[in-house]
What we know:
This protein is of the alpha+beta class. It is built from seven helices and eight strands. It has a single domain, classed as Endonuclease, Chain A, CATH 3.30.870. Helix content is 38%, strand content 22%.
Amino acid sequence: MTRLKLLLLAGALLFALVAPKSPFSLSRQPVTAPVRIAYGPAPGFDGIDPELIGRAREKIDMAAYVLSDRKVIEALSAAASRGVRIRLYLDPEQFRRIGGASGEAAQALAHQPNVTAKVKTSNEDLMHLKAYAVDGHWLRSGSANFSWSGETRQDNDIIIIDSAEAAADFLARFETLWARSTNQEADR
């Protein structure tokens, strides 16, 4: 082994011994589940979220930095009309920026029966998640915003995990976000 390799190995071992432990650890038992990953822009990329939302029968819990894509809003509205309980957790700046027909559709969705929407109001950090859980079984995550450009023009990914365990991990974090005392109902 070269001297550089030995130094790197020694440094990695030292770091592993003295580094502070975080709640997330690679030594934690990994979730083993079917995963689908899509990269866009690509044909059909913008249909992934409406299709997954269309599978919902009980509930959807969504954290959305941006929620302006008409197809996603329409899919959520249709789910709510079927009786699916939907909770939306939104970034305040992005929610206020939505204009035109998309803004009206997002506002109508936020006030539809079976939908509860909250906006993060604390100025600590952005609410930048683009994730949701469907029926406590599927978890959608990835870099793609729920926007027309995020799903048709930008280089993004969407990750769908078929796992109640992965969904439960997200839902535990979602409950923490949802319970913040500084949140407000989604009104403009």
